Amino acid sequence: MSRVVIRAVDPARITRLVILCIVAALVLGWGLFEYGRHRAGVDFVSAKDEAARLIAENVSHGQTISALREQQAVLERSKQIEREAYKQLETTVAALQDEIAELKGELAFYRGIISPSEAKAGLRVQAFELAANGLERGYRYKLVLTQVLKNDRVASGRAAVAIEGNQDGRITVLNLNDVVTEGKMDLTYRFKYFQTFEGNLMLPEGFSPVRVTVKVNPREQRHQGVERVFDWPAA
To answer: Phi, psi at residue 136, to the nearest 5°?
Structure first.
């Protein structure tokens, strides 16, 4: 037969065990809390240090970017100044080249006047130039008379300019005074070295110029008349 053993339970012992379990749980919980708080504190300090480092790097990078932007602005300004200086230099060089060409032309002109040993003395029709003046069928003309000297005598007389062309299928000759726009042009000359006549002219409708004939009629009988023909410049 089986036996049934019946033992008495001590209530005080059970109470002590329960209290011990509760205390152990509290201690364990408190330990876990302190450990977690410690770890959180360490991570917070590390995060704070990392944030401070990143902020410092950001400030440094910002300063570098500002410095580079200032350098870029200085370089852009320098390039702009160089471009403007180069353009001014090009303009100056072009002006000087034009001036040199003009001076060379003037030098050749005066050499032709004061070097009688290289040319026959007497009157010359040095040039008759035409250039569009911006008006329809309008031109600016320039007549230059010169004298190659072997003495100091003054040349005097009168010049005549005739423009030959076609008008309505017929050969037509116009005198300069027929087409000038500033009143009558007096081509009476009196000079020792040279004399220039300038003005504006306007051709009539339907007139197609071909050539210009310049005649110089000296007053002094010892001087021979001069005639020179110039082709009308192509448009």
So the answer is: -65, 125
Of all helices (H) and strands (E), which one includes residue 145? strand 138-148
| Whole-prediction pTM | 0.55
**CB contact at 8 A, 188 and 145:** no
Place of tokens 């051709």: 203
Sequence-distant (6+) residues with CB within 8 A of 146 are 109, 112, 113, 123, 124, 126, 193, 194
Which residue type occupies 58? Answer: N
Q: Which two tokens stand for residue 119?
A: 């040319």
User: Lowest-confidence range among 108-112, 162-166, 208-212?
Assistant: 108-112
Helix, strand, coil % in the chain, rounded to nearest 5? 45, 30, 20
Question: Which of 9-13, 113-117, 186-190, 216-220 is the least confident region?
Answer: 113-117
